[in-house]
Amino acid sequence: MGKTEVRKDTYLIGLGVSPGIGIGRVCLLNRLYHVADWALDEGEVEDEILRFRNALDKAKTQLSEVKQKVASQPHLREHIYILDTHMLILEDEMLVDSTEVLIRQKINAERALDQNLKQLRLMFENIEDDYLRERSSDLDAVGQRLLRILAGANDTTLEQIKEKSLIAAHDLSPADTMQLDRNKVVGFMTDRGGKTSHTAILARSLGIPAVVGLDSATAVVDRDMPAIIDGTTGVVVLNPSEETFKEYLKRKLAFEYLEKELARYRDLPAETADNFKVALRANLELLSEVPAALEDGAVGIGLYRTEFLYMNCRQPPGEDEQFAAYSRIVESISPHPVTIRTLDVGGDKFVQGMNLEREDNPAMGLRAIRFSLREVDLFKVQLRAILRASALGQVRIMFPMISGVAEILACKRILRAAKLELEQEGVLFDSQIKIGIMIETPAAVFIAPLLAQEVDFFSIGTNDLIQYCLAVDRGNENVSYLYEPLHPAILRALKSVCDAAHAAEIDVSICGEMASEPIYAPVLLGLGLGELSMNHACIPRVKRVLRNLTRTESQLLLDDLLQLSTGREVAAHLDREMRRRLPDLFGEFVI
Which residues are catalytic? Predict the structure, then answer.
């Protein structure tokens, strides 16, 4: 049964994860295979386990071959760690041992692997942090590779792709993405995926427009169908009409012109037209991201997520292992500061052997600082490693998900104990190291003046703060429309926190998604924020907007926005004002 004919100008909406516009014909990669299912006889079990282990070995060989290809490409070399991560997954006991347990229950290797992957995927879905939740895509990539090998299927060869092709696939693994020829592939669309998946990160590094999370695009598109991918807005147009083609061609030319313009801003200072300086820092997880962050103009790291160190480990990383990771980050970003956030996940997600109970509501359960204060020994190991790294450059410690003064005092006690131990051991560290907290809960907003007396800085995590203030699970499509960064309650919450920080004369910054959106720049500037931390790729765009604003006009605009009653009114007013004041930046084409 064939596919239904697609009408002219059929629009699909997904997530734009790599900006730009690609125009071409679809190359359909179909890599989903039926998972075979049969019962084993007792005498077949050991042979089936051997078949599974052979598949593991073949997968490692394939990834090693991709690594060799990638190592010769400077623009991709820094992402080799992704392939190393996949090779670690192939050795992870949660994948390997659990699958073999199922095979011993007389289930064939394909079905056993598929069942195990579904269980592991459920575990990832309960993770609150977007970045870590997206790591399930790496597990899927490894799992699909193994299933293809077990099925004896030959991979669709990426070398056979024609020029000016738009790839359409259920999903693209990072290994697939690394092998895309930028001279042939002008964009890709996938059914699955998220903004922080490794495939999305690679697409941005390659400069290939990409839209993911389309759900069922591969069920609609046909091979060689003309299409347009807008990786900025997340729109895919199938069978575009002549008028639509011309419109998007104009947008494509405007985007490419803007990209060249942005390159001029990378080395310019981030300051407003009336000379108010704003420090633009990067959010990152890995040492390999530092060169790109510096190239994009980051002046330090405003949020270093440490969770990645705890992934794919049979045991939590030791002090020396953490110190080695932190020191490399600090030395590579010096003389700029590094803000290291302590572990911000529940231990049952990544730290094996903890045996914590499954929680009905993990977003409000034993996570972040609550977990660290329960697992004091684990917490102190991390604090000792951070303190040791502070001897090598500017380091700040940040505690996540603080909801009261008592939690800060408890953190300080453990930090003092770690300092005393290091002093007695004769280990160098910054005795005046600054400590701060993430403002992510309504409770922290309400008592911000009290919290400000106990710390050196605030960092507002807008992602969780908006979610908790508005009681909206942004991952739930039924209520995601209620997730409004410009909701009057959010504006008032931000102003309350900033006012408290300024009154106490401590630093205040934002490290959530709001910082990375150029349209929000005047709001954050009006709040008096002198530091913004974001995905480093967004820094040139935000800098360009800041340099075309004044702090005074931003404060007046914020005053106007605070008088409005709904998030929709605020967004509309802000959009109008930015188009009027900066038509070259917020005109017809979105920056």
Answer: 198, 511
